[in-house]
């Protein structure tokens, strides 16, 4: 199967250093270039000082950095802020205008895809399709754990794609849906917070059982909170929390057990089945060790599915392990991204039977 998989980095990966003022936007772009990645995924609300205004001065710097570091814009990460007023939610018209603003900014900065979140109402996406077509932007709905492809939730969006015939809306899988184990950095943080080994073992065993028998996938519901609650119940959260209590676990143990339901394992066949509608990918990771192995996500197995499907697009490293470390340790996002990019490069270049 013919594929063309390229490597990108979401600048969200450097959030720790960016927030602390240790790195600025150019620093982040430079570090991406040093990994050998050629794509830049931007969070404009956080990283453009004048947002939502893109000044001529910023545009000149932005495209200057792209040329200087031999990289290109890949994905514009949008956030639909529909609670900006104290007394009311934004109207549908206002939300569509906000989405159209981001689509136009994405085009102006050279992006071809725009990430939107699961909380974005479908009618806002549908109402923005004409603008996306005019601006040659593909709106990508992030498939973030516990959501998944080949599910009742995804079917709701597929219906809209097929009904409208749009080529400007699709999916952006996040590798967090391919966790075969609880991230080790989360487990270690639980230990630091006093969670017993007995509880940690019980949580690991419960997760392994969910992987083995298959997760019950989340359903489509306009009420995301309701859908998430039903998903957790269907996958055994009440039973696990009860077991943790019987093992003497306190609040920290219960929080740890509940947090593991934010991670899921989906069959990578989901990628193959939906490749026609996948325009960008978040290669989420939590910890890549010194041997270039992500400790909870089987990168080789997932990338093989993308190759088999004939994917043409970017895999964008997105480091999210910092929050399990920064309560005690200094975070080195630069090294983590470097390791992960090497793991991606190896998996993409590996000669395997498809």
CATH architecture of the largest domain: Alpha-Beta Barrel
Cα distance spanning the termini: 8 Å
Number of strands: 8
CATH C-level category of the largest domain: Alpha Beta
Query: Count of DSSP helices?
Result: 16
GO molecular function, one term: endonuclease activity
InterPro entries: IolE/XylAMocC-like (IPR050312), Xyl_isomerase-like_sf (IPR036237)
Organism: Lacrimispora amygdalina
Keywords: Endonuclease, Hydrolase, Nuclease
What does the model show?
By secondary structure, the protein is of the alpha/beta class. It folds into two domains: 4-180 and 267-349, TIM Barrel (Alpha-Beta Barrel), CATH 3.20.20; 181-264. Helix content is 47%, strand content 13%. The protein contains 16 helices and eight strands. The protein has an eight-stranded parallel β-sheet, with helices on one face. Helix 8 (152-164) links the parallel strand 5 (138-143) and strand 6 (169-173). Helix 12 (237-246) runs antiparallel to helix 13 and helix 15 (299-309) packs across helix 16 (333-349). The radius of gyration is 20 Å and the shape is globular. The chain starts with a strand and ends in a 5-residue tail after the last helix. The relative contact order is 0.15.
């Amino acid at each position: 199967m013919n594929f063309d998989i390229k490597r990108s980095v979401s600048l969200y990966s450097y959030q720790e250093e960016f927030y602390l003022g240790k790195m600025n936007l150019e620093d982040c772009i430079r570090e991406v270039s040093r990994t050998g990645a050629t794509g830049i995924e931007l969070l404009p609300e956080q990283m453009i000082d004048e947002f939502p205004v893109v000044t001529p001065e910023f545009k000149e710097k932005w495209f200057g950095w792209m040329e200087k570091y031999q990289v290109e814009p890949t994905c514009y990460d949008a956030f639909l802020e529909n609670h900006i007023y104290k007394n009311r939610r934004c109207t549908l018209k206002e939300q569509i205008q906000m989405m159209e603003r981001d689509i136009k900014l994405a085009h102006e900065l050279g992006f071809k895809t725009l990430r939107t979140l699961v909380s974005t109402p479908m009618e806002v996406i549908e109402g923005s399709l004409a603008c996306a077509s005019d601006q040659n932007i593909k709106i990508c709905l992030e498939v973030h754990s516990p959501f998944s492809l080949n599910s009742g939730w995804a079917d709701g969006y597929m219906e809209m794609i097929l009904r409208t015939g749009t080529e400007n809306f699709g999916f952006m899988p996040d590798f967090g849906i391919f966790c075969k184990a609880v991230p080790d950095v989360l487990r270690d943080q639980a230990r630091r917070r006093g969670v017993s080994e007995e509880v940690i073992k019980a949580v690991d065993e419960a997760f392994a059982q969910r992987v083995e028998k298959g997760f019950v996938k989340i359903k489509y519901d306009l009420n995301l909170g309701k859908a998430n609650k039903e998903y957790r119940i269907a996958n055994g959260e009440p039973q696990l929390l009860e077991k943790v209590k019987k093992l003497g676990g306190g609040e920290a143990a219960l929080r740890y057990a509940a947090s593991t339901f934010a991670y899921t394992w989906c069959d990578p066949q989901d990628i193959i089945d939906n490749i026609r509608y996948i325009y960008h990918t978040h290669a989420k990771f939590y910890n890549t060790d010194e041997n270039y192995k992500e400790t909870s996500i089987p990168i080789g197995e997932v990338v093989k599915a993308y190759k088999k499907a004939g994917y043409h697009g970017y895999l964008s490293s997105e480091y999210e392990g910092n929050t399990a470390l920064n309560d005690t340790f200094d975070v080195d996002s630069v090294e983590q991204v470097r390791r992960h990019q090497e793991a991606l490069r190896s998996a993409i270049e590996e000669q395997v039977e498809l």
